[in-house]
Amino acid sequence: MALSESIAAYTDCFEFYEQAQADGKGIRILVEDRKAATVLRGRLNQARVLERRESMRLYDRTDVRYGKSENDRFRVTMRETAEGDGYWVYIEPWAAETLVVEGLSNE
Predict the structure, then answer these.
(1) Strand ranges (DSSP E) for 19-58?
(2) What's the rounded Cα separation, in Å, for the pair 23 and 32?
(3) Which of 3, 6, 15 is nearest to 71 (CA)?
(4) Helix, coil or strand: residue 13
(5) pTM of the complete model
(6) Tens of pLDDT along 28-82?
């Protein structure tokens, strides 16, 4: 299935990203099966691709926003429900799950 090249086709996706941003830890969306989850994940990623293209049109190459989407800070994954009756599509911020950060210059 080909995805739309019109940014207007992804208003639901941008609303999901806004909700994930507002929550801080992200959100998850329940869909009926793996196919629906795959389609939604593809649409969420396509929305970011189109945002990047738009930023290349709007901003000069020297601008830090050039070629970027403000939603690049999120990862989109899918997982089957524990009951096996659907799939969750997760939108979560990228974050390293670190316990300790140490400098190496004093070794």
Answers:
(1) 27-31
(2) 24
(3) 15
(4) helix
(5) 0.85
(6) 999 999 999 999 999 999 999 999 999 999 999 999 999 999 999 999 999 999 9
What is residue 22's three-state secondary structure?
helix
**Position of tokens 């389609």?**
39
| Strand pairing category for 87-93 and 74-80 | antiparallel
Structure token digits, residue 51: 């945002």
Which residues, 6 or more positions from 68, have their beta carbon under 8 angstroms from its beta carbon? 52, 55
Distances (CA, A) of 73 to 10, 59, 92, 107: 18, 19, 8, 33
Write the CA distances from 1 to 20, 31, 52, integer angstroms.
Answer: 26, 18, 22
In contact, 74 and 94? CB cutoff 8 Å: yes
Size of the chain, expressed as the number of residues it contains = 107
| d(C-alpha 103, C-alpha 29), whole Å | 39
